Amino acid sequence: MNLKNIIKKDIKNALIKIDHKEYDPIIILNKKTKLGHYQLNNLIKISNILNLDPYELSKIIILNIKKKSRYKKITFSQPGFINIFVDEKWISEQLERIFISSRLGINRSKSQNIVIDYSSPNIAKEMHIGHLRSTIIGDVMARILDFLGHNVIRANHIGDWGTQFGMLIAYLEDKKLKHDNLSLTQLEKFYCRAKKKYDVDKLFAEKSREYVVKLQNGDKNCFSIWKKLVSITMLENYKIYKKLNVTLKENHTMGESVYNKMLPDIVNDLKNKKIAIEQDGSTVVFLKEFKNRLGESMGVVIQKKDKGFLYSTTDIACFKYRCQKLHANRIIYYTDSRQHQHLIQAWTIAKKANYTSPNLLLEHHMFGMMLSKNKRPFKTRNGDTIKLSALLDEAIERAMHLIKQKKTNLSKKKAIQLANIIGISAVKYADLSKNRNTNYVFDWDEMLSFDGNTAPYIQYAYTRIISIIKKSTIPVNKLKEKIVLKKESEINLAIKILEFEEIILLISHKGTPHILCKYLYQLATIFSNFYENCSILFSKKIKNRKSRLKLSILTAKTLKKGLNILGIKVTKKM
Questions:
Q1: Full-prediction pTM beyond 0.85?
Q2: What dotted CATH number matches 455-565?
Q3: Residue 517 to residue 195: CA distance in whole angstroms
Q4: 5, 128, 388, 471 — which has fewest CB within 10 A?
Q5: CATH superfamily, domain at 113-117+124-157+257-364
Q6: By CB neighbour count within 10 A (0-12 exposed, 13-18 middle, 19+ buried), where does 253 fall?
Q7: CATH T-level topology, domain 3-86
Q8: pLDDT by residue (tens digit) across 171-209?
Q9: pLDDT one-digit tens code per residue, 537-546
Q10: Domain boundaries of the chain, sorted by first residue
Q11: For the motif 'HIGH' region, what are the positions (predicted)?
């Protein structure tokens, strides 16, 4: 139920009767419900366009929409606002529809093929905290679009091709190291050593490049080693995905190697179409859309002098594959802002070559950095990048310490399970609750607090409601009477529940999970106010008890669904 959209549509139709043109009414939820549940916020702007006095325009709008049963009262306030009171009986009817719906009344959208490119770790390296935002924000978007009925194609674009594999294979062969039983930690150490040797030892560098060529040409030994290196890395990454409760699986892996065979044809095709030219032995595309400091068209190299390919070439091939093979209607990337120019340049080249369809949407959902309390990049005391596995282990340890402080009577097994849920949820929610476009400060105390906009607060609110429902002597299947909305706290809770669909649809377009976190926090606090002002279990009137119990159940369902979309687990006891 998208109540804001319904009001918006009603006002749009009223405006069309005046001018036969479409206007965009801005409807906001009023913080003070005494002034109205909703408000038309841009009446003055519309009245200026129509050359009408705001009050006169308000009278025309009110006259056109006030007869609808969903409105109780509509008023004008200076200097130019229309205040809308929604009818409580109509709200109750919408809640009843949601109550019996397995989808909380949210309809499926017209299905699209949507590719979401997220997480994308590198092979032979452990995932670090820099991978957290892409992984969990991208996963929320995948879950939302799944829920809305789209065909979501999760694309884990891992870095599994290139010179680094020549270096690693050369190092393993040089040191006569067996690759069968290596751990990812060992593999990363060997990679660092191989890179240092590559930079100073010309013979080793030449040998590394030879191995790259062998790998590209399908050499069985090189291919076998490469496959094992990928397997070792991804096995550890899947453990992290499972711990984070993200939906990425093995079949979602679409690494750089997928597009390798396409690259020679891409380069030849771009040259044949006069999009790319030879310059000093390299193949370059000059883009007039991008200028350097001298105002000259920027060059994007797609093949080096040594005939090697670049990331830009792979990304052009990737766009072609996703459009022509996966038939994508929309492609969403979750990478940090530093990748933006590179991504748009590759996209521009792909469009020039007609590899993409005109209606295909490309969206780069950028995000900021995770900072320490001193507002610097979050690192270890030694200045090293923090491993993601270490961060999650610490979160669980801190959550366990909290549980012990609370002196709960949980068994050891249940305490460990609860610590896992609280710790991982706290880290995820702390990130997801911040606007992805900004940097944020990582604070253990804040994220594990049971107060404020945190996972523990929302999770506890859910368990509290479940506890209330369990204490009720009225079976859920006996709740046949309609919800009755009399008190202000009941109405506020009802309207907030109805807002859920609007929030879900907004995030499906913008990819901003912090909006959902804010909504869930507001819903939990509004329920707390409702609980304080309305007796749920002990009201003298049975119809009030039943009505308030239904509101409690709807709140619990909404909180659970919202947290599920965030990839956060709930628990019945805390």
A1: yes
A2: 1.10.730.10
A3: 42
A4: 471
A5: HUPs (3.40.50.620)
A6: buried
A7: Gyrase A; domain 2 (3.30.1360)
A8: 998 888 887 788 999 999 999 999 999 999 999 999 998
A9: 999 899 999 9
A10: 3-86, 113-117+124-157+257-364, 163-247, 455-565
A11: 121-131
